[in-house]
Amino acid sequence: MLTFIAGVVTGSFSMLFIMSLMSIGKNADHHMEMSLQKEHQ
Q1: What is the DSSP letter of 1?
Q2: Total domain count for the chain?
């Protein structure tokens, strides 16, 4: 039972971690595009 709870906790934490990483990556990509557009103008 404890191993099951531990698995669920680690699973949810890893999901949150991956989601936050993806959102950070999207923000970084958007920031890069914005700076590139400024340079081209």
Answers
A1: -
A2: 1
